[in-house]
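pls design
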C-alpha cells in the first residue's frame, strides 16, 4: 500500500502545529490509520503525540551550543541536518505502514520551501504521493494585498517543491462571517479580488494579480479551524480528490 504524505506548511504562526493536531484527531475519529511527524527542532511544545520527532535527534538549543550560532542560524542548520536523517525517517515511517503520514514543518516557511533538504526528504519518501496543505494566515488574508502576497508565497512553494497543494484559510473561527465569505470569494473568483485590489490603487499589485491568474495559481481556499474542527473533513476530501480523483497531476500543479 502506498502511503500518502501530507506536509502542513505556511508562514510562521499560521497554525501548522494545531492543524496537524486537528487532522490527527480527525483521522483518529474516522479510524484512519495515520502517523504524525514533527520536523521542527525549535518547537518548545507540541500539542499532539508525535510518532516521530526530529527533536529525538537534535533541538535548536543543541545546534546553537554545538555550532556556536544564534537561533536563526540554528534554524537553517537544523533544516539542513534533516537531510542527513532521511534514511532513518523513511525507515521508521515505512515500518509503521500507516496509510496517512502528517508532517508538521518548521515554523518559518522558507526553512521548508527553500532548503534543499526538504526536496531530498520529499523525494526519498514519495514525491508522487505527497501533498502540501498550505495555510493562509487569516489576519493577513483579510486585505486584498495581504491575500495576494500569501497566494504569491504559496505559488512559489509549488514552484519550488513540485507537489500538489491544498489551500486552506486557517483559524477561520477568528474571522467574521463577512470577512470569511470575502476571502473565500477572492480565491474562487479572481475578478472579485481584482476589484478589491483596484480600490487599493497599487499598480504593482495588479501586475502580480495578472501574473498569478494567468499562471493558474488561483484555487478555492478551504476555511478551517483547529479549534472548532470546522473544515477538517474538507481538507481530507481535497487530498482524496488529488490522489483518487483521477485528475492529471500536471494540471493540479500548474
Ligand atoms: P510556528 O511553527 O511556531 O511558526 O507556528 P504554527 O504555524 O505551527 O502555528 P500554531 O499551530 O503553533 O498556532 C499559532 C497560534 O495560533 C497558537 O497560539 C494557536 O493556539 C493559535 N491557533 C492555531 N490554530 C487556531 C485556530 O484554528 N483558531 C484559533 N482561534 N487559534 C488557533
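designed seq:
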Amino acid at each position: 500500500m502506498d502511503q500518502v504524505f501530507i506536509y502542513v506548511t505556511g508562514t510562521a504562526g499560521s497554525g501548522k502545529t494545531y492543524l496537524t493536531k486537528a487532522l490527527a484527531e480527525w483521522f483518529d475519529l474516522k479510524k484512519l490509520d495515520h502517523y504524525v511527524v514533527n520536523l521542527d527542532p525549535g518547537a518548545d511544545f507540541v500539542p499532539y503525540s508525535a510518532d516521530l520527532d526530529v527533536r529525538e535527534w537534535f533541538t535548536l538549543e543543541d545546534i546553537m551550543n554545538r555550532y556556536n550560532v544564534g537561533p536563526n542560524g540554528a534554524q537553517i542548520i537544523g533544516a539542513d541536518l534533516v537531510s542527513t536523517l532521511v534514511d532513518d525517517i523513511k525507515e521508521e515511517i515505512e515500518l509503521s505502514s500507516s496509510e496517512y503520514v502528517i508532517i508538521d514543518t518548521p515554523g518559518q516557511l522558507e526553512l521548508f520551501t527553500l532548503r534543499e533538504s526538504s526536496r531530498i526528504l520529499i523525494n526519498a519518501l514519495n514525491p508522487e504521493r505527497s501533498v502540501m496543505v498550505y495555510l493562509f494566515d487569516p489576519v493577513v488574508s483579510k486585505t486584498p494585498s495581504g491575500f495576494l502576497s500569501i497566494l504569491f508565497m504559496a505559488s512559489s512553494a509549488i514552484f519550488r517543491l513540485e507537489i500538489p497543494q491544498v489551500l486552506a484559510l486557517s483559524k477561520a473561527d477568528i474571522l467574521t462571517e463577512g470577512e470569511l465569505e470575502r476571502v473565500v470569494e477572492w480565491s474562487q473568483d479572481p475578478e472579485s479580488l481584482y476589484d478589491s485590489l483596484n480600490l487599493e490603487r497599487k499598480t504593482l499589485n495588479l501586475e502580480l494579480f495578472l501574473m498569478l491568474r494567468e499562471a493558474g495559481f488561483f484555487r478555492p481556499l478551504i476555511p478551517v479551524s483547529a479549534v472548532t474542527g470546522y473544515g477538517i473533513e474538507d481538507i481530507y476530501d481535497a487530498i482524496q480528490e488529488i490522489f483518487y480523483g483521477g485528475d492529471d497531476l500536471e494540471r493540479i500543479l500548474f
